[in-house]
Amino acid sequence: MKDLLGKAILDFQTNNHPQNVITETDISEAEEMDIAYLFRSYKEMPKIEQKALNLAKGRILDVGCGAGTHSFYLQEKGADVKAIDISPNSIEACKLRGIKNTSVQNLLDLTNEKFDTILLLMNGTGIFGRLINTTKYLQHLKSLLNPGGQILIDSSDLIYMFDEDEDGGKWIPMENKDYYGELTFTVEYKGEIDDPLEWLYLDYNTLQNAAHSNGLECELITEGDNYDYLARLSIQ
């Protein structure tokens, strides 16, 4: 990966002529994203993110922290938070912002640590990549929880993006896919295009069923305005 999203984040943090990022998926057209959005304040966050931050407690792990916006807010509130991301540029920006405990790390490589709250926000199920990987990730997340701990994760049901047929059913092209929420995601920045990334959106019922199959309780905490939701997973 060229880490172009991370490069945009670091350019913004260092005022190195940042530009908008262009994102595209295999089911949606290209659209521009102002990188400043990833540096938003608590008041500018969607209510799902605000709710998750309000519920975070104890020792906190922020998975896929990006620009570190959630970790920064929690740290300012005095929380014990660790921020991880696979993007070296993003982690460098986090360090420059003053986030104290942050590292370039794949979630699956994190072992021998326990947390009271694990945050996976801004479509936290995305890092699963494909539906088939869900069990692997849920089992690993479960292994990182302290007794009484919680996983706060958000996602969206993408069924609304597909056309209806005459009978009211949805027409969903499923070539090379096991589930309609499996997307291929690409990022373009300053004329460069990153390697395609597999990214998973899970509807709540599918997440709930997967959680139960892996010994986790699943609670719907709140729903957003765009078919999105926040769920809390905990050990049964």
Automatic annotation (TrEMBL):
Source organism of this protein record: Myroides odoratimimus CCUG 10230
One Pfam family hit: Methyltransf_31
Annotated Methyltransferase domain residues: 58-173
InterPro entries (UniProt xref): Methyltranfer_dom, SAM-dependent_MTases_sf
Name of protein: Methyltransferase domain-containing protein
